[in-house]
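Our example copied in:
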Amino acid sequence: MKKKDIQKLTGMAVLTAIIIILQIAGGGIHVGPVSISLVLIPIVTGAVLYGPLAGMILGAVFGIVVLIMIFLGMDPASMAMMQFNAGATIITCLVKGMLAGLIAGLLNKAIAKRGSNLSGTIAASIITPVINTGFYVCMVTFIFRELMEKSYKVHGTAAVFLLITGMIAANFVMELISTAVISPIVITALRKVIGSRKND
């Protein structure tokens, strides 16, 4: 096995461990009622440093951990979704992270070829929370609409959409800012470390 492959496997293992720890620990930090999720940062990092497939795999790890937490009763809201529609809940948990990681990797690759590595990194860092949250909002609005109507006494797709977007708006903004700011710093630092090791 080549040294580059060993470094990639090691890096993926470390990022996987970070995702698991962050998600089990709550996925982020709390500022008042707003939860700032940090779990997307290792997904972006893997997508940028190791490619779209790596991003998708790390996104899958994120989804699997969420599902395990649901099965263990650690996420009451998602448990209600699971009871309402188990298949759609599994798809939501898995696909949103996988899609976010895949698109982050593809976008970074496309932009980095035409511009700079930093431009690709920033774009990937921005698109990841957008895809992750956007897919979740779409699934909840259209697949889990009946559940939301019963839970919050609202009626109609538009009303459910407004309710969901309102509920997660603050979290999404903070998640977007934290991912877009922290990910490029982490990735730039890691690139320097990886570059220095290549020169050893």
Notes: The chain is about 85% helix and 5% strand.
